[in-house]
Amino acid sequence: MIDRFNRKIEYARISITVRCNLRCRYCMSENGIEKISPKDVLTYEEIIHVTKIFSQLGIKKIRLTGGEPLLRKNICELIAALKNINGIDQVTLTTNGILLSKYLENLISSGIDGINLSLDTLDAKIFSELTRRDLFSKVIESFQTLIDKNFLNIKINSVLIHGINDREILKLVELAKNNPIKIRFIELMPIGCAENFIGVPTSEIFKVIEENFGNMIPIDEKDQLHGPARYFKIENFIGQIGFIDALEHKFCSNCNRIRLTAEGFLKPCLNFGIGLDLRNLLRSNCDDQMILSAIQQTIYNKPREHLFNEINDLRDERKMYQVGG
Question: How many CA atoms lie within 13 A of 172 on its CB side?
Fold first, then answer.
């Protein structure tokens, strides 16, 4: 589907839970989530239903997020069902890796197309400080299992924060030297708890990498369904280095995605609170054509840009785990 600014929208991030087994300082308070009733979360049947409607509007890629999506039971059955929807070309998953090694075989059997593993440090002590949990070994085990299984589409998502893990750049980049993976440095977004921290600018990360590993050569991304990451190759590296920096290098003019929260709110832009209460529509007497038209109008009116750097009365007050990671 084409929105009013002539952007082709074909990628939906769908959160399936707000629950998480970590308490990352830039995402969630130490006390955890604001609890919601299970009945307020979209059922798998509702997610499948709305994805079928999405596909009619040209959505081709689905990414399942959370919270931690592997905490929700029978996720592999959901993935298999989404893969069977006509028009859906890719179904991928973002996870913190705590449960990944346990479920990887079933995820592969379900047809999962790609796995993004969130990993902000290779230091167990820093991991515990950042996540408030002593579970570093579980994540490393999951990473190694992915490599051992020769899983082809592995991305490592890293958020760098001044004073906490900003000295981890070279160690993280080293992972891509001998492994066929993509290390992506994601800019800290000023949402919820993250506003209490200072992220590391992409320009600073880029400089550190080139000073230590040599020139990074831009890669022309051939996958038309990819997200906003810019990828680079380093000589003698098997893997790639990527950057997602919505503030330093705003990519709103090329944004191709929408978000659906676990509670069924359709967000056309991460920063804005405007959108569509799809849960209410799905549970009312609306027929599919009415739901499709409402989604179509919401996507068409997707904001021109996120306006994170400006005072904005329409800003969403939800925290990152509430909007889908």
Answer: 28
Q: What is the CATH number of the domain that holds 292?
A: 3.20.20.70
Query: Residue 307 class from Cβ within 10 Å (0-12 exposed, 13-18 middle, 19+ buried)?
Result: middle
Q: Tens digits of per-residue pLDDT, 140-191? A: 999 999 999 999 899 999 999 999 999 999 999 999 999 999 999 999 888 7
pLDDT at residue 310 tops 80: no
Cα–Cα separations (whole angstroms), residue 305 to 28, 252, 309: 26, 5, 11
In a domain, 316, yes or no: yes
Residue 52 near residue 59 (C-beta atoms within 8 A): no
For residue 249, what are its two tokens? 């290098």
Question: 96: domain range?
Answer: 11-323
Please check whether residue 14 is in contact with residue 65, taking contact to mean a CB–CB distance below 8 angstroms.
Answer: yes
Q: Helices in 232-305 by DSSP H: which ranges?
A: 278-282, 288-300
Kind and range of the H or E element at 141? helix 136-148
